[in-house]
Amino acid sequence: MRIRFDCRHCGAGISASDWDSGRAIVCAACRWENIVPADQAPVLHAGDDRVPSLAIPGGSRWRFDRKNYFLWGFVWSGVAVVVIGVLFGGFCSLVSRSTPVAGNELIPPVNEVLVGGGQAAGFANDIDKELFKTIENVPVKGLDRETHGEIRRSRPKAGEHPLALAVAKRPSAGLGMPFTFGTDSTSSREHSSDLGKASVALHTMLDGIGRRREGTDHTYARAIETDAKWLKPEMVPALTQMLMAEDATWRMTLVRMLKKIDGPAASRALADRALFDLNADVRTAAVSGLRHRPKDEYTERVMSAFRHPWAPAANHAAYALAALDRTDLEPQLRELVDRPDPMAPTKKRVGIRDVTVAPQLVRVNHLRNCMYCHPVSTSESDMVRGASPDWDQPLPVKYYGSSSEQTFVRADMVYLRQDFSVSMPVGGEDCKNDWPKEQRFDFFVCDRQVPAEEAKSYVPPATYPQREAVKTVLARFEKK
Q1: What total number of domains does the chain contain?
Q2: pLDDT tens-place string over residues 136-145
Q3: Cα 437 vs. chain centroid, distance in angstroms?
Q4: Is the CA virtual torsion 15, 17, 20, 26 positive or negative?
Q5: Do 313 and 470 form a contact (C-beta atoms < 8 A)?
Q6: I need a labelling partner for 252 at 20 to 30 A (CA). Which of 58, 65, 152, 415 fits?
Q7: Which pLDDT tens digit goes with each residue over 77-104?
Q8: Residue 278: strand, helix, or coil
């Protein structure tokens, strides 16, 4: 059932689903947040033509005729069989649905789920097409077939990183990428345990309902949104990693869950949604979630966007600071105005020599590059084991667990951490063996080596998009 009301700011009409009662949604006309009022069922009066008549035409009634008792006995016996069958079937269904999938307590029983999920009301369930144009031609990085095969066949000893050796042998595979090797890339045992349970549960809920194949079902989205087992700081890494590339309904669910979780990890995750999400309503909801959180938990993340090579992130940071009325940051913002273009070539020490580099946004195909971000798992006792798809085979049905026929990676060790992820259409080699036609890409900032001639001919621009974004928020503050 739809709830219709007027925006309290501009008066425009708004329509929302009744399950959104009490939640904040954004007016499409003025972007003002409104609370969806409680649903009120319509009152039907006697004589109302909407009330169906229960009278039997002609006023006659069927009567039991003893002459037809055989017929009536047969009819009532059939009715009894049907009723018993329905009740028994419902009981069996209830029992089966009440059993958590795969024995994971984080997966809600299906009978507790609000079935019939769909697009959440109040926002467009897609991405901004203009923003998408800014990333669709971003350069692709990752493993080539030869390097992928070498790492896949490797059986490293403790402390060895085949990827590091491969990159040293073929610099083009990872030149300038922000890799982290060693202890800094490894999660604690407690964190790994939480990550493993949550990842398995989310994969089961997402993949088990036909994600990427028949369209995304949102059946589970509403169930976990209020589940206390998910609303904990230790769940933030798995929630953000798994849901940031899903559709807008799941990403809005992610934001609503992060709002209910205390701690700096949830604050930084909300800041990332506010800066990098390609849906304006999801970004607005994320900014709203930052309003009552400690400022020191998200300020650095938002301010860093003014130096990010993806210019829209700076615009989103300007909106966030203006909406949050962060006038206390005015001195730092004025310093940023005088900074040089973040895309300008600079000298950087790489190994034993100085090279000229410039920041560059790149993307990595998530499905094809598991071993680009994680080491190969060599033991079934590893904490979080995820299957690394074989490029020449259909995608594995089971991502987590063990199998002698699959190569696994350790998700508790991470070489690369992306800024954001987006599902994008693919074709050609990426779609072979019935791989999906829409695949996830992870976006990173790497150092692009600048040729000497390009560095010599570089002329600083009079201004640049990130500086203009800073000026915009300063102008908003001055008007106040």
Answers
A1: 1
A2: 999 999 888 8
A3: 18
A4: negative
A5: no
A6: 415
A7: 666 665 565 455 544 433 333 333 444 5
A8: coil
